[in-house]
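4.2 Preliminary Data

To establish feasibility before requesting continued support, the project team ran the inverse folding procedure on a target of 579 residues. The structure was first converted into the token representation described in Section 3, and no sequence information of any kind was made available to the design step. The complete token record follows.
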């Protein structure tokens, strides 16, 4: 519990420097406030995330918390949601305990998940994904309990119905919260089923049935929700995945179930026993860990030089400082796979990690903008935390014959690793390829000014002729959510980066927004743009500098708001030329 409370505090660290945290905060605020004000979900989102309305789990939780506690929606989203994601630390500890890792392993796994960069940075955001990852952890805990039921309870009775009910309720909650998290659960359960069928260890019919039944429940929930309820997601996002309708994707998934069962039966007929030899000794483990570290550092180096896999994001060499400690932490779990495959339920974690890594590699190869490669990382960190918890215990037991000094050294090294991970949990903007997730008070005040201060035509959300506010993705979300103005999100590059030329004039007269093309009503500029204005989530944030920056401080732009480090410039239409 203390670790979980500490994790909550760590997830709120960005609020020391920023008023708000998260580049999509404004849209989540608008959709939650709409629910609280009207008592019903917003049916159409005129902003950037069209499919957000199909997954209202975040809005239900934040809105309900605001109504029950009397706090504002803004406060609830900013503070409560990141704190909820810290529950993952408690869940991973329970999984490690259930798999026999003991209190030491459970504590270390929880500490790792509380501080490791991919988990902390992603789950500090008030967004559906972090909530989805918590539900994934809860689902995997229930699955492990169900998988080990007869073994743990030492009875011959079948699993109680409540196990299936609880699993189904968690799947339903996940279905309405986050599509990608549900996909990872389905994929993970499928790989776990095949791994069980391939091994003699733990392949009782009742346990195999549990695996197949839970897989069916998850896929049935996805089928119903994605095809019947989440129509925007079905017709847009699912179509973008492979270029085929969502109905065909789901039909292919059910055909895949038949193939999976047949493959499972084939594997069962040729399955292999988990060898009864001793666990890896120091020699084998040392060589494997060294190979893992070398590969990890090599991947980091390649990512720094050639970009984040599956994207055009160039993070730079500073990435190594913040990611090498993560690789070291993951290396602790290398030897745990050997341990887990000998334990009832251990194959669940091995299959879970395998599924996530396979999906990540597939997303990198196809460069998917739906199955985004870097969005796999928090889920991989959560599954790997179980491996790390088991691995540290195995490492300690393996060194006991060598004396207490070695065991004590492992404890000191583990403590130092946690400290380093805390220090590297939040890479600065320059390491994150120019992406800025925090919104400062000046930017918030300018966003508030937009609501009533922007003169006609005013960039009204529901009026296509009223123009749009040009700015980057983050401040577009703030302009929309706080300022109630239509903005450009990732489509304002021609105006932001253009010089005093004809192409920029043309862009001022007609810019793309999520609700169609509009004339530019205003430009929302922040000093932060000088070091990077983030437009697309798949490209580095490029700085606005030189002529591109200077052009805003003269005609035809009219300075309407000056906050010292943030400005709003009006654009009188029609724009005829440069003065």
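Position-by-position output of the design step:
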């Amino acid at each position: 519990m203390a670790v979980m409370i500490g994790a909550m505090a760590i997830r709120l660290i960005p609020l020391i420097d920023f008023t708000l945290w998260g580049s999509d905060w404004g849209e989540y605020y608008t959709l939650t406030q709409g629910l609280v004000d009207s008592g019903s979900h917003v049916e159409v989102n005129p902003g950037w995330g069209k499919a957000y309305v199909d997954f209202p789990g975040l809005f239900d939780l934040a809105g309900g918390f605001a109504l029950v506690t009397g706090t504002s929606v803004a406060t609830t989203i900013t503070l409560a949601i990141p704190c909820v994601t810290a529950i993952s630390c408690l869940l991973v500890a329970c999984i490690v305990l259930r798999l026999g890792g003991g209190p030491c392993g459970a504590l270390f796994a929880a500490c790792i998940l509380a501080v490791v960069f991919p988990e902390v940075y992603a789950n500090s955001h008030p967004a559906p994904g972090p909530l989805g990852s918590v539900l994934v952890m809860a689902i995997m805990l229930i699955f492990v309990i169900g998988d080990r039921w007869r073994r743990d309870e030492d009875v011959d009775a079948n699993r109680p119905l409540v196990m299936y009910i609880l699993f189904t309720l968690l799947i339903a909650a996940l279905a309405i919260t986050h599509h990608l998290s549900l996909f990872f659960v389905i994929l993970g359960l499928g790989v776990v089923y095949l791994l069980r069928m391939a091994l003699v260890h733990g392949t009782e019919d009742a346990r195999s049935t549990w695996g197949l039944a839970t897989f069916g429940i998850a896929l049935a929930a996805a089928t119903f929700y994605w095809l019947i309820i989440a129509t925007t997601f079905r017709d847009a996002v699912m179509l973008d995945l492979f270029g085929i309708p969502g109905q065909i994707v789901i039909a292919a998934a059910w055909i895949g179930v038949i193939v999976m069962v047949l493959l499972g039966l084939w594997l069962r007929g040729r399955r292999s026993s988990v060898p009864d030899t001793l666990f890896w000794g120091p020699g084998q483990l040392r060589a494997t860990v060294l190979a893992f570290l070398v590969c990890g550092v090599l991947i980091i180096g390649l990512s720094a030089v050639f970009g984040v896999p599956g994207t055009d994001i160039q993070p730079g060499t500073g990435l190594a400082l913040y990611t090498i400690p993560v690789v070291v932490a993951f290396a602790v779990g290398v030897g745990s796979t050997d341990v887990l495959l000998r334990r009832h339920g251990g194959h669940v974690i091995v299959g879970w990690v395998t599924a996530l890594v396979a999906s990540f590699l597939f997303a990198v190869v196809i460069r998917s903008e739906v199955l985004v490669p870097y969005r796999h990382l928090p889920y991989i960190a959560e599954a790997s935390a179980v491996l790390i918890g088991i691995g540290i215990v195995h490492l300690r037991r393996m060194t006991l014959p060598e004396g207490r000094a070695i065991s004590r050294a492992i404890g000191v090294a583990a403590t130092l690793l946690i400290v380093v991970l805390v220090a590297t949990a939040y890479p600065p903007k320059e390491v994150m390829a120019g992406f800025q997730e925090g919104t400062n008070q000046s930017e918030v005040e300018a966003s508030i000014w937009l609501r009533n201060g922007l003169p006609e035509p005013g960039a009204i959300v529901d009026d296509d002729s009223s123009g749009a506010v040009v700015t980057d993705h983050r401040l577009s979300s703030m302009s929309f959510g706080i300022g109630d103005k239509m903005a450009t999100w990732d489509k304002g590059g021609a105006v932001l980066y253009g010089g005093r030329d004809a192409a920029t004039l043309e862009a001022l007269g007609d810019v793309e927004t999520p609700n169609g093309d509009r004339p530019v009503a205003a430009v929302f500029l922040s000093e932060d743009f000088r070091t990077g204005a983030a437009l697309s989530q798949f490209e580095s944030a490029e700085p606005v500098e030189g002529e591109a920056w200077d052009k805003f401080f003269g005609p035809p732009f009219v300075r309407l708001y000056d906050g010292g480090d943030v400005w709003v410039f009006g654009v009188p239409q029609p724009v005829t030329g440069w003065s």
